[in-house]
Each structure stands twice: as C-alpha cells, then as structure tokens.
C-alpha cells in the first residue's frame, strides 16, 4: 500500500518551470530520498507535499485521501504530515520540553508523559528538557525538531536536508539514528538532500531529480549499478565512463574486451564501470591488461591514477584505494570485476 502518491505534479514561478510531470509513490513505512543538485526542484516538491506550496497541476494523495487536485486543497496543518527543516527551526523562547510539547493536548501530567516518551524515542537525555535551544549541540537540536514533528503522530515525515549543518561524524551518526527511529515508529519518510552518499545509505527508494524532472527512481543499489544515463551515474558516485563497440555481450574499449550487462545491444555505446570494479595488480600477469602509472593524485584513502594503457596507447584516469608500492612509473595490471553497464540509447 502506498502512503503517498504524486501524479503529474507541475510548478512554475514567473513563467519559469520548476517542476514538470512528477510521478512518485512512497510505500507505507518506507524511506525515500530525493536527491539532486541545487536548483533541481527537490525542495519545491517537498513543500508541495507538505502543503506550503500549491502545484499548478497534478494530484497529491495521502493514504487514499486527495490533498491537492483541481479545485481541492487541504492546508498544511490538516494533512497529518511532519516536517523537519534544515535548521530545525526550534522556538528560541521555548525550552526543549516546550518545543517538543508544542501543540500537544491533555493535562500537564499527560503532556509531560508524552514529552518524556518522545525524548526517550529520539535518544535525548531527559535532563536536557529544561535547556534552551541555543544550549544544545547541532545534533541535539535536530533530535528535538524530530521529536516535535513526531509528537503530532504524522502519517508521513518530511526531512529537508536536516543533517547538512552537522559535522561529518555527527552527520552520519544522526542520520543512522533517525533512519532507525523512523523504521521503528513505522512512519514513512522523505529525505531531501544534495548528498548522494546520504541518499543511498538512508533510503529504500532513491529519486534522482534534475531540471525539475525525476531522471530515475528505484532502489539505491539498482540506481548506483544501473543508472539510466551519464549525468545520473556521475551524480551518484565516482565512475569511469568509456566509449565502446558492442557485440554478443562484450565491449571493446580502451581497457580491452569487457563483459557488459546486455547481450542484445550492438554497435557504438557508452559504458560505465564503478571504481570498485577495477582491480590493480603490482605484478603484471600476461593475460591481464597492462598499464604504466603516469601520474598520481593522492587524497588520503583514495588516489586518482593516470594510466597509460599498453595495448591501446591511450590514457585513462581511475580512482582507487591508495596503496603503498604504487608510484609514478610503476607497471600494473588491471582486472575487471563483474560487467560494465551500458547506458540507455
């Protein structure tokens, strides 16, 4: 069953199209990430779902109920959708408890019980309840914002780049905690982010947005390994894209003869390998592809190597895990794991 359904959503500002023909389904209790560069339209789409913006066309349905359609408009406060903005947007004049309890109904004791339960749910020490927002760390503020959104028992949770202001280590830990929390609460969620690694690790379903359109929607691993086109491939991670000639499930390219994931394709095409599919050996084997390292761009854990291929007399650049013993002038061999992906025509 789908919690959210979007059909043919379109939006323009002053004659400039921001969203066009958006179709998306979010399954009950699932996590969806909408990822794309700045200006691609992802935040506008999230605001339309939340009810902060009206679409020019299309339909928004939540658990079978129409929220937006021709002549129908349900305001944000009546949608049962939680929203966690980028900066948390906590009320500075309310304590932690006041922020979490905002909008809760019932007696003082009942509200305190709910606040305690919500603080436990988001792993916040109850001793923080009396503090002001400015006295909290960035991660704690985001947990307060999440607890406040959960207090309304939403059907759907919207997260607008909520981890972007956190440092790298805290960002990963907070993202994991939020994902586990939402899964435990069985609340469907949509995360908007420009960070592809964040989208791939957080979501069951990833939607790649580009120029107001959804370029591809699917499971994270499917999009990473079989992107529909080159822009999607490069946006979702490091990649090596090569021109090749195809025949009978093989591609002839600068790296030699490589197996591909479509035996029916023929002729010229563009193929893709992810860095982890390319293995380097320091002891060249006669049956493997031979290359000479002509340049190394060392960046810690990962290095970019320029390789002069012995057979084709061409140079390619690959990213690989940095290894001691590989230096400029080294003779190396290459082996390919799995199949190269062929982009759609």
How does this structure look, described?
- This protein is an alpha+beta fold.
- It is built from eight helices and 21 strands.
- The strands form four sheets. A six-stranded mixed beta sheet has the order 7-8-9-3-10-11, with helices on both faces. A five-stranded antiparallel beta sheet has the order 2-1-4-5-6, with helices on one face. Strands 14-13-12-15-21 form a five-stranded antiparallel beta sheet, with no helix packed on it.
- Strand 18 and strand 19 form a beta hairpin.
- Helix 3 packs across helix 4 and helix 4 runs parallel beside helix 5.
- The chain is globular and about 80 Å long.
- Keywords: ATP-binding, Cell inner membrane, Cell membrane, Ion transport, Iron, Iron transport, Membrane, Nucleotide-binding, Translocase, Transport.
- InterPro entries: AAA+_ATPase (IPR003593), ABC_SmlMolc_Importer (IPR050093), ABC_transporter-like_ATP-bd (IPR003439), ABC_transporter-like_CS (IPR017871), ABC_transpr_FbpC (IPR015853), Mo/tungstate-bd_C_term_dom (IPR008995), P-loop_NTPase (IPR027417).
């Amino acid at each position: 069953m789908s919690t959210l359904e979007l059909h043919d959503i379109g939006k323009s500002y002053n004659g400039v199209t921001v969203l066009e023909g958006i179709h998306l389904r979010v399954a009950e209790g699932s996590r969806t990430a909408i990822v794309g560069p700045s200006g691609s339209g992802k935040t506008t789409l999230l605001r339309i779902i939340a009810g902060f913006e009206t679409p020019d066309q299309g339909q928004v349905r939540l658990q079978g109920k129409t929220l937006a359609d021709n002549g129908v408009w349900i305001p944000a406060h009546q949608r049962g959708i939680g929203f966690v903005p980028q900066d948390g947007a906590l009320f500075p004049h309310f304590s932690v408890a006041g922020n979490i309890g905002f909008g809760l109904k019932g007696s003082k004791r009942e509200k305190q019980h709910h606040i305690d339960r919500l603080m436990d749910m988001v792993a916040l020490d109850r001793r923080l309840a009396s503090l002001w927002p400015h006295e909290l760390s960035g991660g704690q503020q985001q947990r307060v914002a999440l607890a406040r959104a959960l207090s309304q028992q939403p059907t759907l949770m919207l997260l607008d780049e909520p981890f972007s202001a956190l440092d790298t280590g805290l960002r990963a830990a907070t993202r994991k905690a939020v994902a586990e929390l939402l899964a435990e609460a069985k609340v469907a969620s949509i995360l908007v982010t420009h960070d592809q690694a964040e989208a791939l690790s957080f979501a069951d379903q990833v939607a790649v947005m580009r120029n107001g359109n959804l370029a591809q929607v699917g499971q994270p691993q499917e999009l990473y390994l079989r992107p529909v086109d080159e822009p999607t491939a490069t946006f979702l991670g490091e990649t090596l894209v090569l021109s090749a000639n195809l025949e009978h499930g093989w591609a002839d390219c600068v790296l030699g003869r490589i197996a591909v994931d479509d035996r029916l394709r023929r002729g010229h095409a563009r193929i893709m390998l992810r860095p982890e599919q390319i293995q380097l050996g320091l002891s060249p084997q006669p049956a493997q592809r031979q290359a000479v390292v002509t340049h190394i761009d060392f960046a810690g854990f990962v290095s970019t190597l320029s390789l002069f291929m012995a057979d084709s007399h061409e140079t390619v650049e690959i990213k690989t895990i940095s290894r001691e013993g590989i230096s400029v002038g080294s003779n190396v061999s290459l082996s390919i794991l799995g199949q190269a992906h062929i982009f759609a025509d």
